[in-house]
Amino acid sequence: MIVVLKQNTQKEQVEEVKNWIGEMGVQVHMIEGLHTTVFGLIGDTSKVDMEQIQSNPNVESVKRIQEPYKNANRKFHPNDTVVEIGGLKIGGGHFQVIAGPCSVECEEQITEVARRVKAAGAGMLRGGAFKPRTSPYAFQGLRAEGIELLLKAKRVTGMPIVTEIMSAEHLPLFEEVDVIQVGARNMQNFELLKMLGKTNKPILLKRGLANTIEELLMSAEYIMAGGNPNVILCERGIRTFETATRNTLDISAIPILKRLSHLPVVVDPSHAAGITWLVEPLSKAAIAAGADGLIIEVHNNPKKALSDGAQSLTPDDFDSVMKPICRLVDAEGKILG
Ligand code: PEP
Ligand code: MN
Questions:
Q1: Which of 57, 109, 110, 296 to pair with 337, CA 20 to 30 A apart?
Q2: What percent helix, strand, coil does the chain show, rounded to 5?
Q3: Residues in the ligand 1 pocket, defined by CB under 6 Å
Q4: What is the CATH number of domain 83-328?
Q5: CA of 74 to the centre of ligand 2 (A)
Q6: How far is the CA of 271 from the centre of ligand 2 (A)?
Q7: Is 0.90 topped by the overall pTM?
Q8: HSE of 289 in the Cβ direction (CA atoms, 13 Å)?
Q9: Mind listing the pLDDT tens digit for each residue in 139-157?
Q10: Where are the domains of the chain?
Q11: Contact status, residue 100 vs residue 114, Cβ threshold 8 Å
Q12: Which superfamily does 2-63 belong to?
């Protein structure tokens, strides 16, 4: 971090600011110019509050050289993280497709969709049991029963399951869940992130509707700082002025996240698009941009779906989305060529 002092700051004040910053747990290296003094802060600056330094009346500007996240940072962990989920790998050249309905609705629905997405080549089954809905009158999910039904589908198909948590108090219900999803709306539920940091479960962390890439990485940092390194990042579209799609898929977030971080990056074309026919081209775009996986909504009867029917593929549609993907990866998910 670089701190530039205001021109002609008196020697006494320069010393005062230097000592004040030094008390923040970093070494302060001073460069004295003719009129301006510059401090180079050396050490772990992740705990240093930039705004607080900026608020000092003798400070002209502050610039971060090092990112505020450490555990999620590729600089400190150059090799790709490979997250293992029930024998499957994601990241570091391993690609996985997670598919299933937005919401778990009944046993027939989830087991039927599970069988079909598995046959098409998906590695993991998704399904929401706790649903974050804009309206309190909309279907809220089957909650604990939804998780039970997912576990049944897991026993039938052998597929690991991915489902969303909305409150830390529900954590005991997620004991047998393979991947815990943190949805867009909870990306900055810091108390929840801290609790998940204490588990060793793989966490699928979705980017918030209006959050920056750095904020997503800071949320990953919360989980990792707690001791859980198994974080998978998910770009699911952000809110923009565009109305042609439900959200705007930020394709550039994929290579940027992969450059800044070693964590696997999954793309959710379903929530980004909000429309079924866009799922296939957005999936292709995500793969071309370097994604490590996809999470796609599939329903056996989208017209009757209790949530997100408009963006849910039929199992037949999913078959055709998967065909070119299956040519790109082998049975273990290793990207070919
Ligand atoms: C979902 O996966 O069904 C979901 C609610 O996603 P998001 O949090 O990205 O909106
Ligand atoms: Mn959904």
A1: 296
A2: 40, 20, 40
A3: 102, 128, 132, 183-185, 206, 236, 268, 271
A4: 3.20.20.70
A5: 31
A6: 6
A7: yes
A8: 25
A9: 999 999 999 999 999 999 9
A10: 2-63, 83-328
A11: yes
A12: Phospho-2-dehydro-3-deoxyheptonate aldolase; domain 1 (3.30.70.1140)
